[in-house]
Specification:
alpha/beta, 6-stranded parallel beta sheet, binds 2'-O-acetyl adenosine-5-diphosphoribose, binds zinc ion
Length: 243
């Protein structure tokens, strides 16, 4: 099966890749619904990323931020992130990530849509003043809920919370529908509308995820395995095929 996939990649001009939290687990960033996910273990609830809850009690999110921002800062791209960068040697690669970490960026991937935003910037909800990741990293340890130094407003990260529209969905859908190969990597495909992107894929559909997902039936190639192991295998087959 992996040999057929390798051929499809070598024959492709454009590859679209949807990634989820599973791709960053080997970098030390926990996922949500995986075996050790932060929702699975009950460590945090979905309310952490709910806009109504945020406005009512922002400390809930900022407790998560105090734990996770230092990890986001030190985390390095995994084998799978680096493999995605390598794929640019074979085709145009378009990554649509649900992840708020910056690991695709650190790996050097050219085209990335952050469907759920990311931790790079935060904004005052009142006056719009922008705060960088570095500023926030300091502020969250000074105040339990950081406020704007200009107007006292609540600061919100540029992350898409439940109840807010995702970013660049139409562009993402076009990337997916134009691609010869579509990958879904390390996402449970439980969250709307990211999971709808699968339906836009007209080319070969590939899913790699440790666990089953409800959408596995919609894929041509299904791999239930660790993403880094999968990436290493596919990489060596591709290299063999190119020589
Ligand atoms: P999930 O936690 O729902 O799914 C991650 C999937 O990755 C799980 O099915 C795991 O089995 C799988 N996985 C974990 N480690 C893996 C590995 N090493 N190799 C292969 N697969 C692995 O994460 P998402 O689908 O990204 O929203 O979740 C979607 C959204 O829900 C997130 O963006 C987040 C959350 O609420 C916001 O932050 C706004
Ligand atoms: Zn302000």
């Amino acid at each position: 099966m992996i040999d057929d996939l390798s051929k499809a990649i070598l024959n492709s001009q454009s590859i679209a890749i949807l990634t989820g939290a599973g791709i960053s687990v080997n970098a030390g960033i926990p996922d949500f619904r995986g075996e050790q996910g932060i929702y699975t273990t009950g460590k945090y609830s979905e309310h952490v990323f709910d806009i109504d809850y945020f406005v009512e009690d922002p400390k809930r999110f900022y407790d998560f931020a105090r734990e996770m921002y230092p990890i986001f800062e030190s985390a390095q791209p995994t084998k799978a992130h680096k493999f995605i960068k390598e794929l640019e040697k074979y085709a145009e690669v378009y990554v649509i990530t649900q992840n708020i970490d910056l690991l695709h960026k650190k790996a050097g991937t050219k085209n990335v849509i952050y469907l759920h935003g990311c931790v790079k910037d935060s904004f005052c909800m009142n006056c719009g003043k922008q705060f960088s990741f570095d500023e926030m990293k300091t502020l969250i340890f000074k105040e339990s809920v950081p406020h704007c130094d200009k107007c006292g407003g609540l600061i919100k990260p540029d992350i898409v919370f439940f109840g807010e529209p995702v970013k660049d969905f139409d562009k993402a859908a076009k990337w997916v529908s134009d691609a010869d190969v579509f990958f879904s990597l390390g996402t449970s495909l439980e969250v709307y509308p990211a999971n709808m992107l699968v339906d836009f894929a007209k080319g070969a559909r590939v899913i790699v995820n440790k666990q089953l997902t409800r959408m596995d039936d919609e894929f041509d190639f299904v791999f239930h395995e660790d993403l880094d192991e999968f990436a290493s295998k596919l990489e060596s087959i591709l290299k063999g095929g190119k020589e």
